[in-house]
């Protein structure tokens, strides 16, 4: 790697030897995702911040997760007391990092993707698998967007998708970050679009497409 590239001690998983590739387009897709990941990591290190990973294997955006925002706002201890749980269970740096909350560390989709050395579910030959479909259609409205997000990441790349998601989950009035189920901004009290609104839009599009 030339000047300005990743340092020798930075680890990236590019399973070119072990993965089954059926077309040159898949090779290019994986290489583009690697470049996007490297870009995000390099610029986060330049800013002197601990690297967080806001993209996930399944297509969720960690930046709009309530647990992740609690960590960003240094409210873990306070939240643990409110929820009557162990604070250690709430520490999280994002799905693709080593520190995960108790709600995510044993996620089967995460473990499956890691075992196959994939960055995203759409890189798997079984995509979309039964587990992902079940996850999308469960009782949690914020899961309904995962296939849409994965297809969007595949189309525009990680870097652009992360920028779009950051804007999507920021208050249009004051820029405050908010979580999936928030309906009002905690800073300026303005109405914000929640994941429940997203789910309604997805169902409406499905009805119109029938």
UniProtKB/TrEMBL annotation:
<dbReference type="InterPro" id="IPR024227">
    <property type="entry name" value="DUF3795"/>
</dbReference>
<protein>
    <submittedName>
        <fullName>DUF3795 domain-containing protein</fullName>
    </submittedName>
</protein>
<dbReference type="Pfam" id="PF12675">
    <property type="entry name" value="DUF3795"/>
</dbReference>
């Amino acid at each position: 790697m030339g000047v300005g590239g990743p340092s020798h001690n930075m680890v990236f998983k590019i399973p070119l030897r072990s993965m089954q590739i059926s077309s040159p387009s898949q090779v290019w897709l994986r290489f583009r995702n690697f470049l996007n990941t490297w870009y995000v990591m390099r610029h986060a290190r330049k800013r002197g911040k601990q690297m967080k990973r806001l993209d996930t294997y399944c297509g969720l955006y960690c930046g709009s997760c309530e647990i992740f925002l609690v960590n960003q706002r240094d409210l873990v201890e306070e939240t643990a007391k409110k929820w009557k749980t162990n604070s250690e269970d709430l520490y999280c740096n994002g799905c693709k990092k080593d520190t995960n909350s108790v709600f995510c560390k044993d996620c089967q989709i995460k473990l499956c993707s890691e075992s196959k050395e994939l960055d995203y579910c759409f890189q798997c030959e079984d995509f979309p698998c039964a587990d992902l479909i079940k996850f999308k259609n469960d009782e949690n409205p914020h899961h309904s967007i995962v296939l849409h997000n994965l297809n969007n990441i595949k189309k525009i790349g990680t870097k652009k998708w992360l920028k779009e998601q950051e804007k999507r989950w920021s208050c249009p009035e004051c820029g405050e970050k908010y979580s999936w189920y928030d309906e009002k901004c905690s800073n300026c009290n303005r109405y914000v679009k929640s994941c429940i609104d997203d789910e309604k839009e997805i169902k409406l599009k499905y009805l119109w497409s029938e």
